[in-house]
Task: structure prediction
Amino acid sequence: MRKLLFITLFITIAGGVQAQIIWDKPHLAEVKAHLYQPVYSMAYHHLIDGAEEALRQSPPTVMQKNKVAASGDKHDYLSLSRYFWPDPTKSDGLPYINRDGMSNPELERLDRNRLSEMTSAVSTLALAWYFTNEEKYASKAVEMIRTWFINKGTRMNPNMNYAQIVPGQNGDKGRCYGLIDSYAFVEMLDGVQLLASSKAFTSQDQKDLKAWFSRFLEWMLNSDQGREEARQLNNHATAYDVQVIAYAHFTGNRKVMDERLSQFYRKRMLTQIEADGRQPQELRRTLAFGYSQYNLSHIIDLFQIVRHSGCELEGMPLLQKAADFLARYIGKRVDEWPYQQINGWDEKQNALCQDLYRLYLLDNDRADYLRLAKKHVVRHWNDRFFLLYYVPDATDHAFAQAEVQLRYQLQQVDSLRKVQNDRCMMPRSVEKDGSLRMVGIGDWCSGFLSGELWMMYQFTHDPYWREQAVTNTWRLEDNKWNGSSHDLGFMMYDSFGVAYRLTGEQSYRDVVLQAARTLATRYDERVGCIRSWSWGTPDRWKYAVIIDNMMNLELLFEASRLTGDEHYRNIAISHANTTMKNHFRADGSCYHVVDYEPDDGSVIKRITHQGLSDESVWGRGQGWAIYGYTMCYRYTHDPAYLDQARKTVDFWFSQEQMPDDLIPYWDMRDPAIPSAPRDASAAAIIASALYELASYDEEKAELYRKYADKIAHNLESSYQPMPGTAQGFLLLHSTGNYPARDEIDVPINYADYYYLETLLRRAESVK
Result:
């Protein structure tokens, strides 16, 4: 297990090409070997898009600004202090006054943004070269480096004498705080280290760039601004030391590295971090959380530099105290933070999650950091963080793959809605000709897309998915009055119910409760069940109840939980008990349909509508039974429901013709087996149920998780379409209504819904 011992530092710098500064070269090599994997693939393609854009970009230079520093030399870097604005009480606005936490857009006109553009482009191009070995990227990166640092006509002077000026003060000279502007050079030098192996970056380039940074380092150490910055007591001093150490590392200045690192714990950490982890100098700011995280991030950068140097550094316990103090507020609202944070709360929360992840890489004993980071980090897969640091697991890759597909599906859906002039149409499956089957909101499958989008948001925390989920969920609102359907649980709980669970917003709750009131009107106490189908003739059925209807009870249980009204719960329990009594065979398998005499509730017949025959084993029906009674146990803790779920599971996995991959045939009694169609939807439903059931059954938990893990793995590895195909669905090979010869061996949205739920439950089960 990788863990630093955190004792006094002793540096040994090897000759030749030096190690990365912050980036981890072995990790980058691992990423390069696995660029085909979904998470890395998405981040990589975004990186290449950025590199291609950088190829078209003219190299930024300090010579492009319209204003010149007070020195009169345009080669001098010039920037404006971020939080200083014109004084509105003065005709000329001078001198500028401070508005802490409020950025002045004037800073965009000077050199700060160009420096940021240059360093970002060099890093992007260097990584693109590393991953592709295409010299065009290295050549462009070197062109930018030469333009900014080396060429006499365009290079920046190696100083920050006019960084973060305050117009009207100090003769328009820079302030010590301006040295924070050059922090971007630190990561850029990681890109430079990668370029050292390219043809474009010559030994002369390396020599010239090291010479520039040697002079810049000397300026930082000996200038008035540098010395003043070194005397600060907050994040500026931390950032100053990190820069000094990084530049000394790059230039081979062992003496400076030794000196600064040996003093860092005493001079920076002990003076800035209290024993309880608070950072008083940062907490007094209007962006107290943000600046506390910012300082923490700099310290982590330093620890990474040390690790990549093969050295050790004192202070990890105190660093972890600072992280612990902030981590207690992850996932909370800004008004729960006891200090000021006037904007940027969500962004800084995410930055802290990334910091915690990096801390875990430094100290694997802190698995709590890993759990917290993975629970709350925004998985915007285009973020460079997922290339540079993150080690994705199978669930990450599955959701990244799902993201590609669902974005594609939403494009297809939007196009068809425009053609059909119906904004409420929802995707259900794929037609025989390969086109997208769209259905109206009254279809029992109408709610699954919204649920998928909410689950994408639940896992990724990416606001894009919340926006899409909100838009598609409200299209279903009129279903809350749809008393003609027994499937309001599928339609409304899997959309509005999931929305309320994730957001707590009253508007979603109101819709859920109205839908429950509407569903309850289909209950007849003489039968003890909610009526399923209202269609059909008396010679076919009088009061049909299908095993699928167990899934709609969740809506009623939730309504009772939210309101305290036992009426809904009693209906759900009555339905579950009656179904348990009449739908199951002695071996634990279930019928699809039970027809009741509505006058007295007696059973007329037990039949199937979607299975092979009345006594066959329809796969999805067994899935509804396992899931339904597991869910009923969740709400009631009635052991009879747990026993029923167990019994059906035991029956299901005793099937002699069960395929090795546990993705069942549509009906386990089909004589066409092994050539019969599979049903990925049944597998996904059962896997999701098994993860929950494992949490209730200690004796069989390991077995249930083993089954679920195998199903999930095989769905991921063998049942997913190629990206950008299958109309954007996530899983292939489901079977809808085989007897009607409809939706056979096609993608179907409820398979996708329960697949994503399976992935979420799997992730939760391993914590």
The mean pLDDT is 95. Residues 71 and 424 are 64 Å apart (CA to CA).
